[in-house]
Amino acid sequence: MNDETGPDELVKNKPSDPGLNFPNYLSGLSHDIRTPLSAIIGFSDLLIEPRLSRAEQRSYCLMIARSSRKLLDLMSNLIDLAKIETGNLEFFFKPVYIKDLIDELKIEINEMVSLYEKKQITLKFQAPVDNMAYFITDKGRIFQIIRILMENSLRYTKEGSISLVIKQDSPELTTIEISDTGCGIEKELLKNLFEMFPPTDGPLGKKTKARGMSLSVVKKLCDMMGVGIEVSSWVGAGTKFKLNVPRREA
């Protein structure tokens, strides 16, 4: 691939806040671990039934696949957070060609659409006209960030569209926008959107549950890579995440 050429820059992050109690993460995630495990075990047991229709078999298999993916993502996020907290997460900065990045994301997100059975959702991708346009970043990590944000949009969008737009309005900045027409996020929840475990009671007295680790991982990765992240949301109309990737020398 084109972006395998050129100099690499290895950056090893510094340990984050030493006061963070990692076991608390595991305690708070007990629900997120048990839910997919219970689904995998339960629907696997149902598949043994001899009188299942093909439609039922397909439905149960998809549920097992979705739950397995959630569990795998959870384990991956746990490993990443462990590396972040111990200062052992490494970054490899090199030229990333935008066309190649989007082509790979198209394959990944289309597989997700099939997995979540969201055929009524339209995917939109927009990149610079110049096929050789690139920016300097860690390709694996920026792919991970975009994939998490697009999968999050997919989960909370019943119909409409999800779009990925990558622009280079100036030589100093590359912007990446992920937007959807989903349910949106209430204003009071935006304040702690990137916290792993938000307060039990929201500002309006509503009970809120942990949102898992993915958005927290996104924020930590962005901070360490020097990528700015902004979020705008409108209840009932959708959400937009914007990543600002500053120019970086190879």
General description of the model:
The chain is an alpha+beta fold and 250 residues long. It has two domains: 2-13 and 92-246, 2-Layer Sandwich (Heat Shock Protein 90), CATH 3.30.565; 22-86, Orthogonal Bundle (Helix Hairpins), CATH 1.10.287.130. The protein contains seven helices and eight strands, in the order E-H-H-H-E-H-E-E-H-E-E-H-H-E-E. It has helices at 22-28, 30-46, 54-86, 98-115, 139-155, 187-190, 214-225, and strands at residues 9-12, 90-97, 121-126, 134-137, 160-170, 173-180, 228-234, 238-246. The chain has a five-stranded mixed β-sheet, covered by helices on one side. A three-stranded antiparallel β-sheet has the order 1-2-4. The longest helix has 33 residues, at 54-86. The chain is globular, with a radius of gyration of 19 Å. The two termini are 17 Å apart. The relative contact order is 0.15.
SSE order and pairing:
Blueprint: E1 9-12, H1 22-28, H2 30-46, H3 54-86, E2 90-97, H4 98-115, E3 121-126, E4 134-137, H5 139-155, E5 160-170, E6 173-180, H6 187-190, H7 214-225, E7 228-234, E8 238-246
Parallel strand pairs: 3-5
Antiparallel strand pairs: 1-2, 2-4, 5-6, 6-8, 7-8
Helix pairs in contact: 2-3, 4-5, 5-7
Q: Which descriptors apply to this entry?
A:
alpha+beta, Helix Hairpins, 5-stranded mixed β-sheet, 3-stranded antiparallel β-sheet, 7 helices, globular, disordered N terminus
Characterize the largest beta sheet: strand count, sense, and whether it forms a barrel.
5 strands, mixed
How much is the average pLDDT?
Answer: 84
CATH-assigned fold name of the largest domain: Heat Shock Protein 90
CATH architecture of the largest domain: 2-Layer Sandwich
- Judged by helices, strands and strand pairing, the structural class is alpha+beta
Helix tally? 7
E-strand count: 8
Q: Which strands sit side by side, in order, in the main sheet?
A: 3-5-6-8-7
Rg calculated over all Cα atoms? 19 Å
Name the poorly predicted regions.
1-7, 14-20, 199-210
In which range does the helix fraction lie? 40-55%
